[in-house]
What we know:
With about 120 residues, the protein is mostly helical.
Amino acid sequence: MTIKQKIAGALVAGSFMAASLLPAAAFADQTCTISGNGRDSRNRCRIKVERRLTVDQRNTAIVINRVVVIQNTGLNDANNNTTNGGDVSVDTGNTNSTINITVSGNTNTAVPPDPGP
Length: 117
């Protein structure tokens, strides 16, 4: 992991932590109570709730898979065989190959906090 990836990961984690704590601290009291008002009184109550969350995730993955399979059964030859009427039989071993390649690229997950009321 490069230093840029480490810094980006720390920034994303920090922004999620700050955003998850923000509703409890900043928006704890969203009520307005007007009391003690009488005739010809003027009252005003304003509540403004604003939240912003920006998540920027980027990945770059370069994957190169090179597979070379060479199988050899022994390079058996049957030349110049004239006994038994020229019938020749060569029994070689079997070859088997199993190749499994699993490639997983970059993955990002973002779960923004509940926007609240």
